[in-house]
Each structure stands twice: as C-alpha cells, then as structure tokens.
Structure prediction request, 290 residues.
Amino acid sequence: MFLLANVVDDIEMRITNVVRAEEHLPNTPKQQMLWEALGAAPPIWAHVPVLVNEQRKKLSKRRDKVALEQYREEGILPDAMINYLMTLGWAPAGDTEIVPWSSMVEEFRLEDVNHSPAFFDIKKLASFNGDYIRAMTLDAFIEAAAPVLASTDAWPTDRFDADVFQKAAPLVQTRVVTLSEIPGMVDFLFLENPTIDDDAWNKTMSADFAREVLNDFAAAMPSVEWNHDSLKGILEVWTESHGLKLGKTQAPIRVAITGRTVGPPLFESLEILGREETVRRLAAGIARLG
Prediction:
C-alpha cells in the first residue's frame, strides 16, 4: 500500500524527477509499473549512495545525530551545513570545498555524484563551520552570537555587558568552530571570579617560576600603560631575563585570570578586563598558592 500511496501522491503533485537513496532501488520497477498502470508518465529516477557514520553504518535517527535542530542548537551555521551536505558524494571544481550556494547550483550535475557511500564526518562539518564563522563580518558574528549569549547559564544574566563582548568578539571569532563555544571562551569576563580548572591550576602552578612570575607581573600592573602591547612587553622582558619561553611564563597568569590554559589572546584579554580586576585576580591567584 505504501508504494501505491507514494505513486498516487507523486502523480497528484506532478513529480517529474525523483532523487532518493539507493536502498529504494528495488522498489523502482514496481513503482514504474504502477505509474504506467495509472496512465501517467513515470518520472526520471535517480538513486544516490546512503550516508554512513564513523563505523561505516548507514545513518540512523535512532542511533546517530541526524536532526538539523541539534546542529543548529550547537551553533552550526545554516550556510555551513548546506555547503557541507553538498560535498557528501560530490565536490565542486577547484581546490576548495568552501563555495557559495550560487556556485554549487551552477556546477552540480547528478551524474557527478560518487557511487560510494558518503561518510558524514562531524569533525569536518565543524571545520566547515569554523571557516564560515571566520568569514563573517564582525557585526554579523556579534549578531549570530547574541542568542547563544542570551540563553547561556555560564554567568548571571545581570553580569553580561554587551560592550565588553563587542571588544572581545574579534578575539573569539578566530578561535571557535561553533557558536556554542563562545560562552566558554568569554565567561571569565562576566564572572565575579573565574571558574578555576583544577587540573590546569595544578599543572601550571607546579612550575618553579609560577609564584615569581605572578608576583613580579602583579607588581608591574599599577604603573604600566594599559594596553596589550605594554602588558606583553613586561612579560617578554621578564621571560627573557629568566631564560624561559613566553608560552610557558604566561600560563600561570592566564590560569589565575581566566581559570583555564586556553582562551582568547592573554594580553588583549587583560586590556579588556581592566587594570583593577586584573590586579585583584592576580592577588587572588597568589593567595591561592599559599
């Protein structure tokens, strides 16, 4: 009955072309005969390979994440999703798969679709999304981030400052691959005290220079010109005088300020956070060391 209902529905809707998964290929002769028996001209049929997961099993809505709503909630942009889906079993001309919709429409030919099953690679989708995020104008990125920031529970609502986020947005835009990552990148700017990652703290503060660099950097804060270049310059001089690398010496400062070892550029973040709050958090970090 399903096949009959399907054929009748397609006839009523005046369907001329049918593109579907290859698993429906066995149904085609029966449907072809039904079309003819009902006095209608059969459509042109095309069957494309199925999508598979990491285990190379057919994607299943009961087992795999297949709902577009889930990806949208995770911060996947519509244009990035469309672009990625179009590359499953097909590729645009040239050396890049990141192309506008208009180019895909112009280039796509059904006969160019690969005959092998296409792997739905979530990591590759995230990479596509990161490219699309970085290609956005700053204003567009801030607008896209607004719903995520409004719905997050990463900080109390009354502590969010749109002007502060606008300053941090350029630092964040180049470092996230989904919009849902944004709160975790900027939460330290809107919390009274940063949430300290214990593993990051223990690893970073075990360095024999950790206490000294926190003390000396904090001592320089009251008089330094408050911009990221000056802040970086102070630590560069300290680092060179101790025969260390900047990547190592900034880690204790980053953890004391943000609670984590990764995030937006440190010195730009300090500039946004402000002198008074930076001094307070460095003092809290030193006190936590005991």
